[in-house]
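Saturday, quiet lab. Running sequence design on the structure tokens for the scaffold JK sent over.
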């Protein structure tokens, strides 16, 4: 009885890789295993009694077939779980349209309306500033004064600050040496489905991936001119 060759094993592995990219037909593996058992029984029944085939050979080949089937089952289950997770994420994102969320942001899309947000400080700051940089590299520094550790709310009023509509890079400047992230609160206007997952259009921020959401629901923020 022929043994399982390296070429056969490589083909099986290649088949598993392809199964992850395409839909896995588990019934094919089952049919292959059934055919293998049928051939093995037939060979045992018709083998030369004076020179019986080593039983370990049968066991090794059957174990290899079972391993291939198990791997294909695992690949199929993993793909199903990924599809389910993606669908749940899309449904959750779609339900956020019209609601306010808070997202981690590295830029702001300013118009005429105020943009609210907050900064999470781990250390006290004697001097804390919010720095906005426009597309031409012009910086606008907004002083937030001395702050204790914790959440520091802010609100940017483009009209009061004399900021033209457009995209601005946003960062935090602290004399403590800390570089905290900026979280911006805004209403979700629409959700776009992409290959990388749901993309939210958040007022005051623009298009951001779903995973950048840090908080759901409305929050209280202090005004700042």
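Result came back. Writing it out in full:
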């Amino acid at each position: 009885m022929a043994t399982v060759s390296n070429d056969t094993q490589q083909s099986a592995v290649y088949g598993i890789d392809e199964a992850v990219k395409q839909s896995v037909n588990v019934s094919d593996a089952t049919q292959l295993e059934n055919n293998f058992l049928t051939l093995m029984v037939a060979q045992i029944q018709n083998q030369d009694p004076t020179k019986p085939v080593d039983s370990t050979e049968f066991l090794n080949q059957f174990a290899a077939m079972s391993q291939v089937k198990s791997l294909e089952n695992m690949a199929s289950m993993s793909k199903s779980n990924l599809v389910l997770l993606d669908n749940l994420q899309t449904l959750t994102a779609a339900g956020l349209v019209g609601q306010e969320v808070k997202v981690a942001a590295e830029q702001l899309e300013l118009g005429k309306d105020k943009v609210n947000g907050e900064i999470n400080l781990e250390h006290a700051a004697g001097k804390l500033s919010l720095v906005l940089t426009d597309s031409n590299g012009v910086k606008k520094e907004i002083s937030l004064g001395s702050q204790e550790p914790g959440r520091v709310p802010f609100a940017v009023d483009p009209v009061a600050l004399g900021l033209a509509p457009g995209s601005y890079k946003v960062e935090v400047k602290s004399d403590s040496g800390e570089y905290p992230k900026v979280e911006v609160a805004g209403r979700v206007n629409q959700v776009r489905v992409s290959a990388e997952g749901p993309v939210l259009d958040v007022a005051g921020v623009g298009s951001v991936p779903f995973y950048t959401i840090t908080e759901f629901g409305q929050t209280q923020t202090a005004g700042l001119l």
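Notes for JK: Residues 98 and 188 are 5 Å apart (CA to CA). Helices lie at 6-21, 26-46, 55-94, 158-161. Ask whether to fix the surface positions before the next round.
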